[in-house]
Amino acid sequence: MNYRHSYHAGNFADVLKHALQWVCLDYLTQKDKPMFVLDTHAGIGMYDLTGEQAQKTAEWEQGIGRLLQASQVPEALAGYVAAVRSLNDGDSMRWYPGSPWLTQAHLREQDQLTLSELHPLDAMELAVNFRRQRQVKVLQQENGYAAMKALLPPPQKRGMVLIDPPFEQRDEFDQVINALQAALKRWSTGTYAVWYPIKDPLTIGEFHQRVLALPQADKVYAVDLLIREPLDNTKLNGCGMLFINPPYGLTQQAPALLEFLRPLLAQDRGAQAQTQWLTD
């Protein structure tokens, strides 16, 4: 529980994750029916890139910094880019939104967002950041997997669970699989979005196969981005997102999004990107 996302806010992994999250929410909100979103590892919701932690690593410069300087951004990325720009003045870059803020920006009167954060300091800051948001509930120092068990299925019957753990623990993939298995039994029609780091691609292939083995995982779609050739499995060589029951629009826009982001976010030779249905 030592992970602090402030060091990594706005990096290449955030760009991929939040761009896909934005597209997914765009399509989920096209229907008038109410939506429920659970963010299991919410962080603090908004990050100051001029703060000490972000400045220490400056990872955002090779992530959102590159994207904001790019020309001819594809339509799939336009909404996300506009959302980030709306928080900053001109070309200066100070504030970067986390997944809670990006979801909150999509909420309509009939929607609800629940945020779970285990780290005590981050949980306190998260609660302060969303204290005036009537449609947002913050579960302070709550295990996100326990929140899935307690809150699913939601009364709204449709929506998304965003699972974005720090992967500090050796058994994190096991925890994700167990949480998905239990959740799908109770809410098989919900959209589940799981972010994961890619150090060793073989580990990710095994994770994909374990998800496919879950009885209710009938529609599984994966988006993977490598920023370098994965020769050293101690490094964060890339990241991906796995979707169960993805909105149709997400699967249609993801390939163009990845084609644009791969060369933009590459940090060394061997950068690769792929989107694939893991089920027929």
UniProtKB/TrEMBL annotation:
In terms of superkingdom, the source organism counts as Bacteria
Task: Kindly list the biological process annotations in GO that this record carries.
Answer: rRNA base methylation
What one GO molecular function would you report for this record?
A: 23S rRNA (adenine(2030)-N(6))-methyltransferase activity
Which reaction(s) are listed as its catalytic activity?
A: adenosine(2030) in 23S rRNA + S-adenosyl-L-methionine = N(6)-methyladenosine(2030) in 23S rRNA + S-adenosyl-L-homocysteine + H(+)
Q: Which PROSITE patterns match?
A: N6_MTASE
Q: Where does S-adenosyl-L-methionine bind?
A: H18, H41, S99, E117, D164
The UniProt site entry described as Interaction with substrate rRNA is assigned to: Y3
Which sites are catalytic?
A: D164
The UniProt entry's GO CC annotations, sorted and at most eight, read: cytosol
Q: Which UniProt keywords apply?
A: Methyltransferase, RNA-binding, rRNA processing, S-adenosyl-L-methionine, Transferase
Q: Which InterPro entries match?
A: DNA_methylase_N6_adenine_CS (IPR002052), RlmJ (IPR007473), SAM-dependent_MTases_sf (IPR029063)
Gene3D superfamilies for the chain? Vaccinia Virus protein VP39 (3.40.50.150)
Report the EC number(s), separated by commas if there are several.
2.1.1.266
* UniProt similarity note: Belongs to the RlmJ family.
Biological role stated in the UniProt entry: Specifically methylates the adenine in position 2030 of 23S rRNA.
How it assembles, according to the record, is: Monomer.
Protein name as annotated: Ribosomal RNA large subunit methyltransferase J
Can you name the source organism?
Pseudidiomarina aestuarii
State the taxonomy lineage.
Bacteria, Pseudomonadati, Pseudomonadota, Gammaproteobacteria, Alteromonadales
Name of the gene: rlmJ
